[in-house]
Amino acid sequence: xxxxxxxxxxxxxxxxxxxxxxxxxxxxxxxxxxxxxxxxxxxxxxxxxxxxxxxxxxxxxxxxxxxxxxxxxxxxxxxxxxxxxxxxxxxxxxxxxxxxxxxxxxxxxxxxxxxxxxxxxxxxxxxxxxxxxxxxxxxxxxxxxxxxxxxxxxxxxxxxxxxxxxxxxxxxxxxxxxxxxxxxxxxxxxxxxxxxxxxxxxxxxxxxxxxxxxxxx
Length: 217
Prior knowledge:
30% of the residues lie in helices and 25% in strands. It is an alpha/beta fold and 217 residues long. α1 crosses α2 (69-86) and α3 packs across α6 (175-187). The termini are far apart.
């Protein structure tokens, strides 16, 4: 097994290689506006660090969000393209699950990433491997009672200390954690879903109302 994992659902552009036993190379850069510029060089860098060629990869793991439309689709399109070119399966893993795995907390806790518009993408976890609610997008004040008293991880939790007073790192997801989680699930015989994006809301860019299409006669 050689899994190439990547995620662009948060400001972090993160890539890792996992050989079925451990992460053998990884790279993470935080830049919310340069996912498209940074992802392919990061993949090249990780492969070079491991001393491997792309055709050695046996599977792709892609973070499926939730996340903003533009950043998320960069990673998912890249994962799908590599899967088709290499003839290998492409597996989707929830980005929040990757953060939960990296947090490695024992008791109940919350993962929350920054959704902008004064909202967070969030979910509750029983432990670092078990999500107990579906991912959602909400204003922090609206979920205060649901997360009260729980530790929290992620950039969204760190942004809103009034709602998440027990917030701490990791701030962003790492592909190393995604790869580790995917390898565990595959080794256990679990079938991972196809990488379909969790947008949870419409993209910021919208066609203006009363837009008229002009065509030549």
